[in-house]
Design a protein that fits this description.
The structure is a single chain. The chain is mostly helical and 81 residues long. It is 62% helix and 0% strand.
Length: 81
């Protein structure tokens, strides 16, 4: 995924590109969640993954509660891309 510096001038992805990236993200989260749930990650990695999931949950909750606008979430999400 390409890191986007300025979202105002970036070309919009096609529906197919958007869907492909959404499925990649969903698949990655599902795999990491499965590994973490079964404690199959190393002891040094597990705290990092746990903190990441807590942060992801908090951000998702803010979007769901309309504390954060969708556009702000998308800009923040570009950092993880």
């Amino acid at each position: 995924m390409v890191m986007i510096e300025n979202l105002d001038h970036a070309p919009r992805p096609t529906r197919r590109e958007f869907t492909r990236e959404a499925l990649r993200s969903l698949t990655a989260v599902a795999r990491i969640e499965g590994l973490a749930a079964h404690r199959l990650l190393g002891k040094d990695v597990q705290p990092i993954i746990d903190a990441w999931f807590h942060e992801l949950h908090a951000i998702s909750q803010d979007v769901a509660d309309h504390k954060t606008r969708d556009v702000e979430f998308q800009k923040a999400n570009a950092m993880y891309g």
